[in-house]
Specification:
Number of domains: 1
Strand order of the largest sheet: 1-4-5-6-9-8-7
Radius of gyration: 17 Å
Shape: globular
Number of strands: 9
Order of helices and strands: HEEEEEEEEE
Structural class: alpha+beta
């Protein structure tokens, strides 16, 4: 029984990894406190991980090894590669809210 169970577990794990999709990692610096989803991130440097979870795009904001925010995003194709990293904000009740990120060298915009 054990001989049959191990291959089934290995296949199930492989399928789960493929369903999650490959992750892209970026770096971003906020010069002010910024609201991302429901979380306010302090000014500073962050690692941003773009993951696919099924059909949904997810952006994870980390500092060190600590996950601070995990938010869904939509993707917008750009006409050309971005020549620099850009951040787009909207101010709501005196708080900067992250609306979009474009990373240098990429051809997509991440909208929140």
């Amino acid at each position: 029984m054990r001989k049959f169970l191990i291959p089934i577990i290995i296949v199930a794990l492989a399928v789960a990894c493929l369903a999650a999709g490959p992750a892209s990692t970026y770096r971003v610096q906020f010069t002010d406190d910024v609201k991302v989803g429901d979380v306010v991130l302090k000014a500073g440097d962050y690692k941003v991980i773009h993951q696919m979870q099924g059909e949904q795009h997810i952006m994870i904001f980390e500092q060190g090894k600590k996950e601070l925010a995990k938010v869904p995003c939509t993707i917008e194709n750009l006409k050309t590669k971005a020549t620099r990293t850009e951040q787009y904000f909207e101010t709501q009740n005196g708080v900067k809210v992250l609306k979009a990120l474009v990373f240098s060298g990429e051809t997509i915009q991440h909208n929140f």
